[in-house]
Amino acid sequence: MRLKVDRESDALYLRLDESKIMDSEEVTPGVVLDFNEHDEVVGVEILRLSKRVSMGDISKVSLETS
């Protein structure tokens, strides 16, 4: 799994696995899901990130597991 913040394009991308992306769908304005050949979500892109999250908080990402 990879998480990438691109400040230049003002986007966040979460890649769940490395399978080939076959289709993408914008499910709500600025949120795009990427699907593999089995119609499983393998990526999530959030556009206009700075309007959703304070860019100062981006460096404070935490991972929570249970």
What does it look like?
- β4 and β5 form a beta hairpin.
- A five-stranded antiparallel beta sheet has the order 1-2-5-4-3, with no helix packed on it.
- The chain contains one helix and five strands.
- The protein has one domain.
- It has 66 residues and is mainly beta.
- Helices cover 6% and strands 42% of the residues.
What topology emerges from the helices and strands here?
Blueprint: E1 2-6, E2 11-15, E3 23-28, E4 31-35, E5 41-47, H1 49-52
Give me some keywords for this one.
66 residues
What is the general shape?
A: globular
Number of strands: 5
Mind telling me the C-alpha Rg?
13 Å
What's the number of structural domains?
1
Low-confidence stretches: none
* Order of helical and strand elements: EEEEEH
Helix count, DSSP H or I runs of 4 or more residues: 1
Question: End-to-end span in angstroms?
Answer: 17 Å
- Mean residue pLDDT: 91
In short:
Helix content is 6%, strand content 42%.
